Amino acid sequence: MIILRKKEKVNRYHMQLVLEKKETNPPFLSVLMLAREKGGQITPQMVQSNLMPSLPLRACENLLNRLRELSYLNSDFSLTEKGYKSAETRTFWVRERGAYVVDLLDSNLITNLTGQKIMKITPLRDSRSPKKELHSTKEIIEDHLKKDILLLDKEGNHETVRIIHFEENSLLVDHVNVDMEIKVDKEDAILIIKNSKKDNQASENEGQKQYGQPSEHIIARFSVDLREETIREELLEKKFGTSYDKGRRVVFSPFDPNNLALIRDVKIEKPNFRDNIFEPVTLENIRFVPSDLEQARQWMETWLLRYTDRYLWSEEDFQEYVRQRLGLILEFYPTLKEITREDLIQKFSNQDNGFYFAAKLETANYLTY
Question: Looking at residue 261, what DSSP letter applies?
Fold first, then answer.
């Protein structure tokens, strides 16, 4: 799993809006579906006889008039285009109007991943604010007008909302610090916007004042189209440049006797993903290989000299040991497979620090005399 974190700021507005909220299987939906079954036309008598026999005829007519006001029916109680679509998709939009708190996060990355800038819309309970700047509502929300906006309701479940109408002027009342997290693993990717930890208490106080209850710690949550490998590759390319081979997923590294590990955890202090700088992150199990053949030879010989941890009784035993421990080097530099146990004995037997290594290779020779 990779978790990217960074700080963002939400612009908080007070707006007068008309919204539609998407509901599934509401009572009105059965009426629209009946109208569709009957050729697109419905009457109070049809509602009473087919759906609500205990409801007075006048009440059935009032129900149809309500659907007409919501633009699902025409004046003659025939289905509108909106009514047909609602019956076909089995969804219904409930309209409401009033004053709202709208949290908007202006980030190209978030907009590209989620398709929206609006993170939260909640009813306004108290319009008092120490800061009030007048702004054009159209300029703020024109990209969202009459489009589906995915939000979290007060229980933390997703709901879909549309902005249908708005009053021209809005008030910018605050800039709120938030934490953004992108969590990606092999299965899925989640983008989360949360109240900043240092602002949690202030947010709870504000929530009690604005909404009559504490604010949710999570402001917004989205499933996004990202793959763990995509993020890993971009971060490694930004850190290592051309030394990272994207096709073979390795970092070509110069020989360093102080670090002979072929599989490493890489800490990136300022990870850059899609031109956004995030907090430090560690990428696990990154493959490193020598930059060229000569450095590969040095790497391999130094590793064997330093880390060979058992006696190798035969040439076959030696070759198998090298394949198991240094197979990644051999994958990229197969000519090094030609190095034999005898080659290394000759090279290291006369070196002070090579005595024990050579002994691990030569012991079998003495025992077979």
Answer: -
Q: If you search the block for the tokens 């025992």, which residue do you land on?
A: 367
- pLDDT tens-digit readout, 41-99: 999 999 999 999 999 999 999 999 999 998 999 999 999 999 999 999 888 888 899 99
Backbone angles phi, psi at 249, to 5 degrees: 55, 50
CATH for the stretch 26-89 = 1.10.10
Non-local CB neighbours of 75 within 8 Å, separated by 6+ positions: 68
Single out the residue of 67, 33, 68, 66 nearest to residue 51, CA to CA.
Answer: 33
Contact 34, 63 (CB under 8 A): no
Q: Which two tokens stand for residue 10?
A: 């939400």
Alpha helix segments (H runs only) across 76-124:
81-89, 108-114
Helix 315-332 to helix 293-307 angle, to the nearest 10 degrees? Answer: 140
Secondary structure (3-state) at 93: strand
Q: Indicate the domain borders of the chain.
A: 2-20+94-223, 26-89, 228-290, 293-367
User: How do strand 133-136 and strand 169-184 relate by DSSP bridges?
Assistant: antiparallel
Tokens read off for 102:
């709208």
Residue 214 DSSP class: P
Residue 361, SS3 per DSSP: helix
